[in-house]
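On clarity, I found the account of how folds are encoded harder to follow than it need be. For illustration, here is how one protein appears when written out as sequence plus structure tokens.
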Amino acid sequence: MPATERCPGQPSVALEFFILTTQFAFGHGCVHPGSVLSMLKPFHFPSTFLAGNIFSGMDVRPSCTSAKPDGTYQFTKFACPAAGGFHLDDYSTASYGGLNVQECELWGGTNVLGGTSGTTLLLDNNLFARSCIGAAGSGSLSFSNNLVWGTASARLNPSSGTVWYAFNNDFDSTTIGSSTLTNGYNAYLNCSGHLLPMNSSDILSSSIGIWTAVEETGN
């Protein structure tokens, strides 16, 4: 069965992620909790050819005119093929009041983050597998305990005067760019670039990455 998306305040609204559509916009709040034993698995269909027409992939994004909705995702697996669209979309006029993403897997696709002034973003203990991160904005962001693997672009660029935090992350075989942010105890394995500034607590190595070693040994 495909996973569903339910919005508190709108009990009649449910989205099945296997339906071909361009966008699911919600204006109240979105809670998408899985469990340790049963991870929910949204899947995007990118540029799907159907009856002579091209349909773009499906995004899950907030839509609001005044009060911004909150979004919570836990034990959720997002997946789409290459160039398949966006998983997390939290930027400018399409921003959450608060975005909390924990213990999730994001495979492929792109994540646009940053929010707006007064909004908060917490991303903790997630896997970004070949899933690009483009973060720029004035929201308050905390990015910690994440594994970013095989990603063509991971950029954390807070707006001037905005303090972002990034601690205890493992960047493996990833291209990284950033403005100055508060960070430390991060590992960079076989990466191009690193978060700014570099700290004495960080690990920088050009040796084989952790994820690649696991793939080759099966351990």
Observations:
- The first strand starts at residue 4 and ends at 7.
